Amino acid sequence: MADELLKIVDQRTNSSYELPLSKGAIRAADLKKIKTGPEDSGVVSYDPAFLNTAACQSSITFIDGDKGILRYRGYPIEQLAEKCTFLEVAYLILHGELPTETQLENWVKDIKSHTMLHEKTKSFLEGFNHDAHPMGMFISTLAALSTLYPEARKVRDPEVRKLQIRRLVGKVPTIAAYTYRHSLGFPYVYPDNDLSYTENFMNMLWRMVEPKYQANPVLSRALDILFILHADHEQNCSANVMRAVGSSEADPYVATAAAAAALSGPLHGGANEEVLKMLDEIGSKDRVPAYIERVKAGQFKLMGFGHRIYKNYDPRARIIKWAADQVFVATGRNPKLDIALELEKVALEDEYFIKRKLYPNVDFYSGIIYQALGFKPDLFTVLFAIPRTVGWLAQWQDMLDDPEQKIARPRQIYTGYAARDFVPIEKRAARPVGAAR
Ligand SMILES: CC(C)(COP(=O)(O)OP(=O)(O)OC[C@H]1O[C@@H](n2cnc3c(N)ncnc32)[C@H](O)[C@@H]1OP(=O)(O)O)[C@@H](O)C(=O)NCCC(=O)NCCS
Known about the structure:
It is a single chain. This protein has helices at 77-83, 86-95, 101-112, 120-126, 134-148, 158-184, 197-206, 217-229, 237-246, 252-263, 271-282, 288-296, 315-331, 336-348, 351-355, 362-373, 380-401, and strands at 4-10, 15-22, 25-26, 61-64, 69-72, 75-76. It is globular, with a radius of gyration of 24 Å. Strand 4 (61-64) and strand 5 form a beta hairpin. By secondary structure, it is mainly alpha-helical. A three-stranded antiparallel beta sheet has the order 1-2-3, with no helix packed on it. A three-stranded antiparallel beta sheet has the order 4-5-6. Helix 2 packs parallel to helix 17 (380-401). Bound molecules: coenzyme A (COA).
């Protein structure tokens, strides 16, 4: 129900319209009423890259980009990172409430009962070159799971959905670890369900011949915190892909694979890997000012800086900086941190960055801490995808349960030729490609 009305005067016709305004939004479909005559199909809103368009109502994640606030289901990210385990936060995101002790125990047991992969998965992975990017293997393996669980197509069945959600949350660390072992040519390590979610992931990555893997508790807690920070981020590029693909009622494995594909780009989850490459390229603190000048000259972007929503310090970056200090006590300091700190200092004092409100984002420090934890840069985006699977699945459920949602299908403003007659090939003159633009 509308809270207020927005009055619009169409100067073409001198007609005025009152559009219902609810929670600060008008319905774009109401603009259709504004037309010059019966032939006119009405006004559309034009918003490339969704700069100012809400595509859904959601109660999962709240972000205030100007104030630097992030909350899952109302709880501040700082409190969740300090007090919860990743699986507890995953429960919160997917179910809407923090679990009781019994609920958490059952949830953890449920997830652990789905950590194994079908043995066939190994043969999919065998098809990849040893130097295949782990994210490519991860995305393809996720999609391939769809062929192993055909019942997953019944996306309207709540019980089927529940099972696939548990399977996906349980299996993504195993897929991620297998891609890593494949790239090294090491045998795959089966899940050890005595261990926590993150400890087991570390076990599947790094166990060699020892009978039982023992994770360093400081490092496994740091990884758990990183997972919490990455679990959801409302309507970001990959969440939007998850919803769009899911809206066609495609199964959750292929939808999650599509979301992971969106995440792999350097402007989204691929940025953390790019940050490390950038820090390597800079090499030392004294070369920071010259690098910043090149960014300002428009030669390239400062990776790990800037955000569509945050026009303030990304709260996740602050927590990662804190977690990095704990990790460095156990591992020794990563020398790249000094270059990153200097970059941050120089950038935050520079008019170019101040004017555009460009601050460090989650990816600025995450690569440094991942490297200190022992991860290779090409696994960084996969490390982002593991916890984000929870967010994607919550967004997917939200979309399916929302009676207002339909198959996602944006409009366009056609700018091509008007109707023209076909020209036989012998009569065609060569035209530059894209001549219509
Ligand atoms: C995240 C990102 C894609 C957001 O993009 P966006 O919301 O479309 O912002 P825009 O590209 O419109 O940026 C606005 C202005 O800031 C500049 N800008 C944005 N990010 C910048 C960066 N990292 N380095 C230098 N300049 C940057 C743009 O060039 C633009 O300048 P202009 O107004 O002079 O043209 C963008 O900031 C970026 O590419 N950052 C680096 C990649 C990264 O860290 N991604 C991880 C995101 S969690």
